[in-house]
Amino acid sequence: MIRSFACERMLPLLALMLALALSPFALAADPGGAKEQAQRQLTQPGNNAPFYRDVREGANPYQTTQVRGVETNILVQPSGQTWRELRPPISLTGGLLIAVALLAVFAFYWWRGPIGMHDPATGKLIKRFSDAERFTHWTVAISVCILGITGLVISFGKVILLPVIGYTLFSWLAILSKNLHNFVAPVFFCALPVMIVLFIRDNFPERGDLKWVLSFGGLFSKSGLESPSGRFNFGEKVLFWWMATILGVVLCASGAVLLFPNFAQGRELMQTANIVHLVCAMVMIFLASFHIYLGTIGTKGAYEGMRTGYVDETWAKEHHLLWYEAVKAGKARQHFADDAPVEVKTQIAEAIKA
Ligand code: HEM
What we know:
Fumarate Reductase Cytochrome B subunit, 2 domains
């Protein structure tokens, strides 16, 4: 009785173990999974899973495509599924990161307000940025803003905008965004290397950087006094290396792979480029939010400096003391400018008044 019970239980188990052990031989003897597929049709008609599994694994020796090139005979591309699964969580994380940046900027503005000056302006101006620096900076800045906004419409528009503005309007907006993104990208591509060359020499580590880091530039200090820095402070340097150099270059390279698909790159390379582009774009927008805030309403007189090229002597002393001393000693490339136009003087005085 006990014996027959054990046999009843054990036999199917042994059969299963034997089948598993022999399955590699069975598969080897069944290239392309034709037999397995035929058997599956008997038990589950219409279920083509074994066939497509073999196609995906490239095990089917009979698969063929009309496409010639890197995609020859790739009927189903397995990494396409990985890409499809990776994209939504990455977009979501990026979207949350941008929301965190906007909240942080808003909270900082609410807590500290615009960073002003402690001493009154003297009216003596220093030429802080050359015309070439300003032109290049604004070309990059405007193109990044257009690329960022259109990129966000492309990434999140379907989820956020479509339910609100409807199909007709969203369709126009999406087409406009895509074309703007494609045509503005080459402008960024050309201006970025020029900006890197123009600004790189003032973004290397120097005296005062460590002190700036340790006090976080005085951004959170009660006195509101900033740590002395050179032409650019440590925070600006970090943004230069990350935003303009590393992320900018990777965005250009991955964007070029996506923008010009006619250089024999396969789907796998384009999927990788798409993920890299997405991650870098989200981090870029995250960092740019802080830079744009501090370069506009966050610091009085900073925007006017980049717009006109001039800053007041007191502004220079309070924000970049080491650079100001170098200018005064005639050791910097920048110099005092007595010939600044009157309207520029008025604009700067207006911007930095308490
Ligand atoms: C609307 C967008 C932007 C605004 C309003 C803005 C504003 C400013 C301002 C006011 C300065 C001068 C800061 C100072 O005098 O110390 C500056 C510097 C600079 N900005 Fe922007 N900016 C914008 C976008 C960008 C973008 C997208 C990039 C790079 C991808 C960028 C890269 C730089 C660089 C490299 C500097 C010089 C500081 C350094 O080299 O460390 N800016 N920006």
